[in-house]
Amino acid sequence: MAYSTTMRTGYQQEIHDIKNSGLFKEERFIHAPQAADIEVEYPSGSSLKKVINMCANNYLGLSSHPDVIKAAHEGLDHRGYGMSSVRFICGTQDIHRELEQKMTDFLGTEDTILFPSCMDANAGVFEAILNEQDVMISDRLVHASIIDGIRLCKAQHDTFKHSNMEHLEEKLQLHSDKRRKVIITDGVFSMDGDTAQLDEMVALAEKYDALVFVDDSHATGFIGKTGRGTHEKYNVVGKIDIITTTFGKALGGASGGCVSGRKEIVELCRQRARPYLFSNTVAPVIISGITKVLELLSKSTERRDKLEQNAAYWRTGLTDAGFILKEGDTPIVPVMLFNAKLAQDVSRDLYAEGIYAVGFFFPVVPKGQARIRTQISAGHDRHHLDKALDAFKKVGKKHNILGKTKQEMIDMYGL
After folding, report:
1. pLDDT digits (tens, 9 = 90+) for 280-324
2. Which CATH architecture best describes the domain 66-299?
3. Catalytic: 21?
4. pTM of the predicted protein model
5. Among 207, 217, 269, 208, which Cα is nearest to 246's?
6. 33-62+302-413 — its CATH code?
7. Active site residue: 117, 138, 190, 288, which one?
8. 33-62+302-413 against 66-299: fold identical
9. Which among 178, 249, 306, 380 is annotated as catalytic?
């Protein structure tokens, strides 16, 4: 069918409605490498503005590390630009196998398989290992890519209240007749910054003969004593059956992901996971960069330690200023504003003060839970954080939200 005037008008109306609702998402264009200090074009066509980046997933500040860039250049020179193939045909180089082994060692698992992204890993793993006889029981706040992967799988799906272990146990009892039961959770919940209670989940899994799946994308490289992730934080290394994670955040920030865990599960992904079988291999230049990142992390926890200190300093500063924060002990620090338009207004005013922090609102977060999600990096120095705190205080005072309760803010701005 031709793209008719009626179709075009209908889509234009949908876009118009999004704009009118205050939920339209505008892109910002960065004219610099990813770092704490960046130059941004916003809105499109505007002059460049130097700002402090407070919303990147660049947790360890490695996206532009000179050693990582050098390794990527070497990978480009020695292994080429791309593979032009999927893994099982002619898309596997020795460096892909080597990185899989290094990730297995780093995460403390039995085996690892690379995917083009963690979204692809989440899209492929459930369908590869489960069928109609099985059940997936997920935390109600799991990441969108996990939800997409669940939708692609024929197994039954149920949920438990966020981080509620009593409710999880009820669901495990309810589904005791299923062939396989998989508890599904994020390690760090990306919108709120809290962590899953993996020690309690593992105990329940052992009690009810279930598997545990963890997406640790917002933890790998910096959560836990040596940065292995939330399973290290909760002392359950070797007890998580399936870990998915990304190389697009702390581990260099480019792209790529993996499934790591029980060797039989990894092998089934190698045999059946559609995003693995039908997507091009992760480019050699990226593999080389990630490998260098793991080498850097194996030598020192300095960046992980600095990140922890920065996050604590930032959280204390915002709390003392009178902002409402989501509780947590990770580098994800959400400043709660509740109203979508207010979140956009605060973000715009922060940008005017030289602080780049994007407002989050429905459908990224539930209605009435709009926020500015700040993310701290080891690339931030104290002067970055102090300038950002000053800007947040100035903008918070402008909008009369400092020291206000949630109800007072709702009364002023609505949901």
Report:
1. 999 999 999 999 999 999 999 999 999 999 999 999 999 999 999
2. 3-Layer(aba) Sandwich (3.40)
3. no
4. 0.95
5. 217
6. 3.90.1150.10
7. 190
8. no
9. 249
